Amino acid sequence: MLRSNRAGSTQVQPTAPVPAQTVRFSTPVVETPGIFILARWVARLVGLLVLLPFRFPVAVATVAVSVAVWHWLGWVALAVVWTVADLGLLVWWRRWPDLFRRCVALRALAAWRWVWVYRRHWQPVLVVAGLAESYQERQYLPRIRRVTCSEWSDRVRVRLVAGTAPTDVEQRVSELAHGFGAPSCRVTVNGPRDVVLEFPRFDTLAQPIDALEVPEAVDLRALPMGLCEDGEVWRLRLHGTHVLTVGVTGAGKGSVIWSAVRAMLPAIEDGTAQVWAVDPKRMELSYGRALFARYADTGETAVGLLEAAVSMMQERAARYAGKQRVHTPTVEDPFVVVVVDEVAFVTAYHPDRDVRRRAENALATLTSQGRSVGVSVLAALQDPRKEVLNLRNLFPDKIALRLDEASQVDMVLGDGARERGANAHLIDPDLPGVAFVRLEGSPVPVRVRAAFVCDADIDAMAAEYGAPSLRPVVDEGVA
């Protein structure tokens, strides 16, 4: 050893650079006896048979009755029973189609899709999507609790794995939608470890919606605007809130504005509601100028209109102080909607800095103090960045039409909206008026489509409900 060049050096094995690695433990492998595997299969089969009547009571009862009839009465009686049952279902379907669809067709569809779509593909889809959890070499998956079908979508109620959160699912909505062949996926949280995945089967908003009928009675807290994805009427609240509508050019901002104005026409006619319009483009709102109590189409006049609204609001608040807290629309104190088309023109793009400052101050005052005294702001915008409009948070209700970028979805609808399925940046350009709405106090975005109010509809509205001095001249022809 004294003659060695490595004398005095520490001898270390090349396979053990760290002393703790000299001892390695491996998991022992124990072969499971076949009797245990067989017992497990039998237990699972018994559990399935026990739970089957609770999961599919109608199907199990049908099979049980059919077997009993065949056993006691024979094939002929079974054929007669099935013929009578089929005729009864046919009469039910023809006489009460809605009840039949709700009680029979949709339940059968839910059972079919539970077995052949979701249960069949559940494990591979969730594993590939990254929603499978592993612990001690065992794999854990969220469990399907129930599948229900509506006219347009499947609702899959899921129990999450302990230790996971709904956020983990919300971040995988795109993978889930593609995995189960759905146009989109939205997540609703019911409670701890209890979420619902909603998969639309088709796009119910693919067809344009004509202008809705003018309502006989106006509810300023529920104005009919169009349709929701579930087929219900989309109703927008204006009284007591402010609404920001954001979308690129051609996304359908005009449909939102004109649908709201159309829904208020009886109130405009009787004087309990007024619309003050700011129209920098002079192309959108000028068609219905006769419907507006005040109208501005330049930067200076727009600022004057906004400051006049602030003065009116403050005068009204001074009269209400100590007397009332809630505004009730009357002819003396009408509900005022300040409609600002392309609000960025007066807050960011106008060349006069003083005009921009005054407009921003007026809008901030209206949106922060106007709700309780009957003043609402309905603003339309193309670019939702803070540099363009830093008052986004003062609008409780927001509407996101087609957007340019995915990041803009959360700018408009709030953090987490895109993860919950509000993919406004993926709206087809051929679907103007389609939007996602997030209302105050609700984190769940709703997909809607605003009705299209064409130029002829606007002309008819202005001719019938507008101020006589501003009504357009209609050539009735020569008899």
From TrEMBL:
GO terms for molecular function: ATP binding; DNA binding. The chain crosses the membrane at residues 45-66, 72-93. Keywords: ATP-binding, Membrane, Nucleotide-binding, Transmembrane, Transmembrane helix. The keyword ATP-binding applies. ATP binds at G247, V248, T249, G250, A251, G252, K253, G254. It comes from the Bacteria. The keyword Oxidoreductase does not apply. This is S-DNA-T family DNA segregation ATPase FtsK/SpoIIIE. It comes from Spinactinospora alkalitolerans.
